Structures are given as C-alpha cells and as structure tokens.
Amino acid sequence: MDWGTLQGVLGGVNKHSTSIGKIWLTVLFIFRIMILVVAAERVWGDEQQDFVCNTLQPGCRNVCYDHFFPISHIRLWALQLIFVSTPALLVAMHVAYTRHEKKRRFRNGEKIDIEELKNQRLHIRGPLWWTYTSSIFFRIIFEAVFMYVFYYMYDGFQMPRLVKCDAWPCPNTVDCFVSRPTEKTTFTIFMLAVSGICMMLNLAEFCYLVIKVCTKESGKATVLK
Prior knowledge:
Layout: H1 3-14, H2 19-44, E1 52-53, H3 60-68, H4 73-107, H5 114-119, H6 127-153, E2 162-165, E3 174-177, H7 181-224
Helix pairs in contact: 1-2, 1-4, 2-4, 2-7, 4-6, 6-7
C-alpha cells in the first residue's frame, strides 16, 4: 500500500486544519502508519504459517486459524486507517472546488492573485465549516466502530497463547499455539490506545469548532440587539 500518496493528500488538508487537527494528523502518521509499516508488519509476518496445532489432519490448522482469526490484525488496521483518513478527502475536495471557482472567476475577468490563491489558507467557516465538522464526525464514528469490531472479532484485546479447536475436519479437540502472543498483545493494546487518543482529539476538535461557531453567532445576536 502506498502510504506516501495518502500522506500527500492529507498534508494538503493539514494546511487548512485547526491546531488540534494538525496534532491529530501528526499522531496518525507517526504513531499509527509508521508503526504499522515499520514494526507491526514484521511482528505478525506470515502468522498463519506460525500457527501450530498438535495434529497432522489435513485442513485442520487452516480451519482453526480462520475460526479464531477471520481477518488479520494488520489488514484490519490498514482498513481502519483508510476509513479514518477518507473523510479528510471531503475537505480536500471542498478546498479544490473553492479554488476552482475562484480560478473560473479569474478567467471571467475578476482580479485574483493566482499565486496568493495557491498558498492561501482557507478559514473554517460557512460551507467549509459543515464539510470539516462532518469529516470529524465520521472519523469519530469509524474509530469507535473499528474498536468495537476488534473487541468483538477477537473476543477481547489480548492475544491468547493457546486456543482449543474442534471444528471439522479436526478429528477431536486440538490445541493450537499462537506465535509471539505477548508481543502481539503489546502491539494491539498500543495501536488501540493510539486509536483512542485520535478519537479524543477528534472529539475535542469537533467541540472546539461547535463552541466557536456558537459563540460567534451569540456575539452577532448581542450586537443586533
């Protein structure tokens, strides 16, 4: 997966974000994407190959592995990062559309500094406020959903050392051993903790934007009175 492309897209959005949004993006790339690419993929490796059962029955080990680990942690984390990052593309498309409209007005004769337009930081207000807050809302939802999926799918956040399997075609209840369970548990808890931090940052940014716009509207109402 080309995470560099994702970084390039989100980096453009970062210029128009709040300070909390910039912190969220830093945490996302340093403590989630880099850890996933550099360390977590090496820890898991070919995990099915290292999943050992005390039977030679053909197909038993594959069926047991599929039963206890229907989706690889690495692939589920990658899917989570894609879903969490996707709402930011709404902001990128909104910014691109706004610049396109200004360029169209420039071609129609309106005086606009093109160089200034390229480097201009758009303020989060009006339609952009709705797009930005909607993207944060969906990020919070996706984070919460994936944390629940992790807990439900793997029956908790701790990697077991031993699992007992009696699924067909196993001849009886067999013992299956997971490789490096302590290390995998540590990575799982770390990734989920960082996911929780990202969710709290998103919630803080969402509340900040809502309070800011409510305060502004309240100030306008006071002036009109």
